[in-house]
Amino acid sequence: MATINGTPGDDKLNGSWQDDDIDGDAGDDTLRGKSGNDSLSGGTGNDSLDGGSGADTLLGGDGDDELDGGSQDDLLQGGAGNDTLDGGSGADTIEGGDGDDLIEAASQDDVISGGDGNDTIEGESGDDLASGGDGDDLLEGASGADTLFGGAGNDTITGGSGDDVLTGGAGDDVIDAGGYGGGSDTIVFTVGDGNDTIDGFNPASDVIHVGGVALEDVILTATEDPQVWVLSFDGVEGTSLTLDFTHYWNEGLTVEDLIDNVVNIEAAPLPEDPYETPICLAADTRIRTARGQVAACALREGDMVATLDAGWQPVRLVLRHTVLAAEMPGNKALRPVTIPAGSFGNGLPRRTIRASRQHAFLATDLRDDSTEVTIRAAHLAEHLKIATLGPEAPAQGVTYVHLLLDAHHLIEAEGVWTETIFSGPMAMANDPVLRRLIAGRHLPEMTERARPLLLRRDLRAWDGYALGRATAHPDRKPRAA
């Protein structure tokens, strides 16, 4: 593996045919990863990053950057600025960040977040999951069964072919359902979504999924055009959905005909969220490794990480997924818990940590000074009040990273001990996220039990526990195996 650092000037840096770590620093840099699983960071300036082949991590940083993931499953983060991001082939995770970004996902099933700004997102082929975020965004799903969220702003959303789930979100949005060639689409419309329009609505196959009201409060009103109707909610102002099906063969549809196309969560639940119960750390969390403090998203298979019980241990798998901001309202299971720097005592964690609700941290039972247990991030927020659950409607999503070692270990993250994935039989049976992410991968056998988890009822005796003992002193060495 090669580590290549640029200068404050305009650099041209090329990696090797192995796994490279390339940092451009300031300036307008050109970084090329070639083959291998590379980590490229542009830093400040208008940078050009090309991952090449391999599962790469590309971080644009500040400036108007151009990122090309190349082949395989890549993570692209544009950062601030008006960026151009091309995932290339592979199932990519692409985050535009602040600014007016152009995002092209290309083939396979991609996860895309535009972030703040007026973004253009082109999903192309594959079953894509995309969110425009804040701003007046343009989203195109193209082929595949796509799930598209406009987010806040006046968005234009085109589902394309395939059976899509299309959500405009706040603002006055225009949704193109594709008419006869658009597949069987579900258009999600909720109280407070603004005054939206659906072009190409197909009464024979499309469904309107309403939220925030009972079905009996849905009002359908005819206009002068018999193929243009307006859906509104009884007693709710400023929220309407215009249904335009002027392409449709039947000009004589009635209220009774159209109301059959309207459902709510009780009648027809939305598609199951694939990220319902993630157990993981946010991508920017720094992990102690043999090569220093490394962001979780930049870890690679084979990296040696510090564990509490077994010394330096190799990372076997690095898995990641993104939860979009548009998925989080109404589902606190998806929102990260924020653990402020210093909240454990003794200045730890060193930096603020974001983790999923189910992610666990080490605690020690002071009553016998021996038992070590783990406590979920959600309990740190809801019961101990030393952390906070993210806002119900955040401006940006979060990329989570899962780390798998040969066993269930405690690793040092921002100076505190926290868990890795436990892929024992029970965990595999109960965690749909884990099953999806590791499908088809070879896993180490884990038959031993994980550390005991501190349950909610145990928190009533919290005075007998301490997080302070569970933290890692900067000079403390991991226990030998």
UniProtKB/TrEMBL annotation:
Pfam families (UniProt xref): HemolysinCabind, Hint_2
Keywords associated with the record: Hydrolase, Secreted
Protein name: Alkaline phosphatase
Low complexity composition-biased segments: 47-59
EC number: 3.1.3.1
GO cellular component, one term: extracellular region
Domain of life: Bacteria
Residues covered by the Hedgehog/Intein (Hint) domain: 279-424
Entry's Gene Ontology molecular function annotations: alkaline phosphatase activity; calcium ion binding
Keyword Acyltransferase part of the UniProt annotation: no
UniProt record, GO biological process: intein-mediated protein splicing
Acidic residues bias (residue ranges): 18-28
Localization per record: Secreted
